[in-house]
Amino acid sequence: MNLENIKQQKTPFYYYDLALLNETLEDAKINAQKYNYHIHYALKANTNTKILQPIKELGFGADCVSGNEVLRALEVGFAPAEIAFAGVGKSDEEINIGLDNDIFAFNCESIEEIEVINELAKAKNKIAKIALRLNPNVDAKTHKYITTGLEENKFGINSWELENIIDILPKLENIVLTGLHFHIGSQITSMTPFKNLCIRVNELNTWFKEQNIEIKHLNLGGGLGIDYNEPEANPIPDFELFFGVFNQFLEPFPHQEIHFELGRSLVANCGSLISKVLYIKKGIKTNFAILDAGMTELIRPAIYQAYHNIENLTSTSNEVEFYDVVGPICESSDCFGKRVQLKETKRGDFIKIHSTGAYGEVMSSKYNLREPNPVIYKD
Ligand code: LLP
């Protein structure tokens, strides 16, 4: 990161290191290819065209959760046959976008949704390919807001609904079941939940076989976590370990394709949020470093108490101090970190918030009539 260039820029801004992105993508690809696994990039993590382009060029598919994400993926050039469309509440209009483009599969979350897709496909005289998103009831042991694979969550079809579903499916003439889909949560750093997922998927996969239902693909979702604590020491997640777990514990039938939907692990560490210190304000117990970036630019700390490494890029002091690093928004939760150790910090210093390439810019808002963020890419 060239400091002189950075100092010329209007803050706050998102900064993406495209070289690191490419390195990460290559590593994921090489390790997935060992087992012939297919990766769909989960667009929800970051939808910038400059980020999507290399992902598409390396041959990844796309995992979308809205009609607009499907359209964005198509615009960038992802092949329709590589686009999965997930989401618990797809509107008719969004389903029609998927149907018109003959996508790889709709990942379906309820009987009601499957019936609507069937109706809409019938009106277009098409056969829609669907995967059933099954709730494996596996605990991802991550933050409760990003845990998705438990029966208490709104996601997926629960095991007690399966008999009913397979009774109904043959009556729906405009859909064909091609796959089973799972996703247990996000920012998962232990491999145990993934191992448990494999065990559950093996059981469900066998159950479908016993019912004489052919399943062409298994989609294991995303969820691989990154090292938010030491992003510079570990910029690339351990894809070798991750895919190795599936290779060891998943028991697909010989003809079955294996798919993943990775978001965060591919893009988080290539992005950072750069901000300037507006004021240092003395509090009762701590000093506040008030930045010109706030929860409107990066909401993860406010809603998940997420940790992001924070660094003062420009201080030349040899002293370190503790600061509560906060934004300018009128909410107490607008805080990027409490008691953050930084080099002695003053007004005008540039602050880097690390690992914001996933679920950073895409989750920004206009609250307080904030302006859109400029974006800078380094090739
Ligand atoms: N597939 C499905 C069905 C998903 O729901 C998600 C993420 C992914 C794949 C990609 O998961 P990843 O590889 O990125 O973990 N805003 C939160 C994360 C929400 C994740 C939602 N689903 C955060 O900032 O931590």
**Beta-strand content estimate:** 15-25%
Broad structural category: alpha/beta
The CATH class of the largest domain turns out to be: Alpha Beta
State the separation between the terminal residues, measured CA to CA: 11 Å
Task: Flag low-confidence runs.
Answer: none
| Mean pLDDT over all positions | 95
CATH architecture of the largest domain: Alpha-Beta Barrel
- Give the bound compounds: ligand LLP
| Cα shape | elongated
Series of H and E elements = HEHEHEHEHEHEHEHEHEHEEHEEEEE
Helix content: 25-40%
Tally of structural domains: 2
How many whole angstroms does the radius of gyration measure?
A: 22 Å
Q: What does the largest sheet look like?
A: 8 strands, mixed
Count of distinct strands: 16
CATH topology of the largest domain: TIM Barrel
Mind telling me the CATH superfamily name of the largest domain? Alanine racemase
Helix tally? 11
